[in-house]
Design brief:
alpha+beta; two-stranded antiparallel ribbon; elongated
């Protein structure tokens, strides 16, 4: 699905009705915007922030070698 929206002078936009219907969102619902590979991805925040943001940034952890590697690098920096 492709849709477009125009930014206002206050950098606001209206999410097109076709996108709102597809995501099942309505006025007052929370959405999450993330930048992935130079693109903005909009996700419906179903189940609240914690549930909807699960897995965001996973590619960063994979490139860094995972959580264990990150902790080891941090500990090494202490010495």
């Amino acid at each position: 699905m492709i849709a477009s929206a125009k930014l206002t002078s206050k950098f606001q936009m209206t999410i097109p009705a076709s996108v709102r219907r597809r995501l099942g969102i309505k006025a007052g619902d929370m959405v999450i915007l993330s930048v992935e590979g130079g693109e903005v991805v909009l996700r419906a925040a179903k189940g609240g922030w914690t549930a909807s943001s699960r897995g965001l940034g996973a590619e960063v952890w994979k490139r860094a070698g995972g959580g264990v590697a990150a902790v080891e690098r941090e500990r090494d920096s202490w010495e």
